[in-house]
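Need the bound structure for iron/sulfur cluster, inputs here:
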Amino acid sequence: MPLAVTKFATCAGCACVCDDLELRANDERIFEAKNACELGRSWFLERPVSKVEATINGKPASLGDAIDRAAMILYEADSPLVFGLGETTAEAQREAVALAERLDATLDTETSLTHGTMELAAQLGGKVTGTLGEIRNRADLAVYWGANPVKTHPRHLERYSVHSTGKFRSRSDRTFVVVDVRESETAKEADVFLRIRPETDFEALTALRCLVRGQRIVRENLAETGLSFDQLRDLAERLKRARYGVIFVGMGLLQTRGKHMNASAATSLGIALNATGRFLVMPLRTPGNIGGADAMLDYATGYPFGVNFSRRYPRYNPGEFTAADLLERQDVDAALIVGANAMKRLPDAARTQLDRIPTIVIDREIANATVSITTAPAGISASGTVYRNDKIPIGLRPPIRSSRPSDEFVLRRIRDAIPD
Ligand code: SF4
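Answer from helper R.:
Posting the output first, comments after.
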């Protein structure tokens, strides 16, 4: 069978959303993904696209029966939860918002368990935004803090920052700094590597902000960070000298002790640096389209995650309406999960509660749930839009036609099946 070629295909294997790939595929699977990194190749080559499957209580069922059962579970629940959405299209995320609104449900995404702290910091103190294209063309300093993109976002350095050749900057014009608790694969490539003690990011970032602003700091207090005054002063000077700098923050900063206060310290440092140059602070989002979920929820409800519709208008309160907290308090009596990977991020107590209540899982594989429906993987055999790490929307070019429905289709059918 001849292999069809799809040029400029988009990979949503990570938030880089590379759109320069060339795929070779027949009607059933992809055989080659040119330009993809190892993570991208496995994302394309190992995704199932076979016929639609659905189960109810572990037994095979038709798609229609599974959708009807899912609709009834959600309709009969007093306090349903819609959760996940990190690996689906913006179109499906829009359907999920409409479904949650129809059910008076709570809607939360993986943002609450990943870079949601960055959203909170922005709400507290503001943020400076920009695009990866701007960084590629103009940045002369890139700092990765608590992140290991060589493993998690393998083409990030090559396409958007340190190693990329932009209009005004290339590798020789850029300084590459890594701050991390261990010498990661990324740290090994850096011009400057600062090994920080675990859980002292807030203190180090605050000291840097003081140095940038010319404020006095007590040197002895720096000892707990594992960094010397000279190391921090050197970094502060580099930050101030940069004409266009960026700090990419990873989960090592955003999900360790301090959480949104760490994120707030990072954004405050970035805002202070805009007095001397242009400076961005940007989270390294995971996985594929979680930035799209933020954008879609922002657009539809005004809030990025943790939204409750029980009063027929959107209410937002992280800690109250976020999935882990709701499940741990046993405030949820049915759950719809879009993308089974989302469940792996939940704490044990929340996962235990999911085992006790009726669950509907929409995923690429059959899941252990009351109702499980397999859908076409976005970018492989379902089209749509995903958002890059800098929230630029990019269209997918799926190379395969699948008999499976898309997430968007299944979510819409569930909404249509809910009784008036
Ligand atoms: S860097 Fe990310 S988006 Fe790009 S090919 Fe690799 S996995 Fe796919």
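Comments: The pocket of iron/sulfur cluster is lined by residues 11, 13-14, 16-18, 36-37, 39-40, 43, 153-155 (CB under 6 Å). Residues 63-76 form the longest helix (14 residues).
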